[in-house]
Specification:
Radius of gyration: 27 Å
Number of domains: 2
Distance between the termini: 49 Å
Shape: elongated
Length: about 190
Amino acid sequence: MAEADSGRCLSALLSGICQSSFYRQREVTDTRLREQLYPDMAHEEFTALCGRMRGVLKSMASADMDQAQLEAFLTAQTRKQGGGGLSADQAATLSRFWKSQRSRVRESLLAGSRSEPGLRGVSWRVDVQTAARGGDAPHGGPVALMELELGGAGQDSEFLCLELDEATVGQVLTKMADIQESIDRIVHRT
């Protein structure tokens, strides 16, 4: 295979790996990539190449490598002895590919890490109930009414309404304080 063809095929393989691994396009499979890009390559050889490139891309993506980090990483990969390293041509192709795809991969990873649906807004007020729900007996205690607005990207909002008595509000505040303490411990540990 000519050097230019080899670079184009590797770039297409990297694109396919990104589509299946990062962009969640399940129709892009290793079998399909082999059939379209490397039909003459032995199955075991393709599996090894695909696995190596997938591992390199995942390392680059998880570290969100900038250009300096990328060059150091690729240099180390080309110096590896044995079958686990990269050729200089592969490293150059990876470098060009990462320059063009880094921001897209990062956005895809960030979008995949967000919880859906997300909290869009909270409104609340405190009322005093004048009658119990089931009957006419006066309650007289304060009640917190909370409305949570939930929704995913491109979706209409859904609303969740909560009615909390004084004891439940105290429990919620205690739990929130525990969560804050846990977050503070983790943040200050690093």
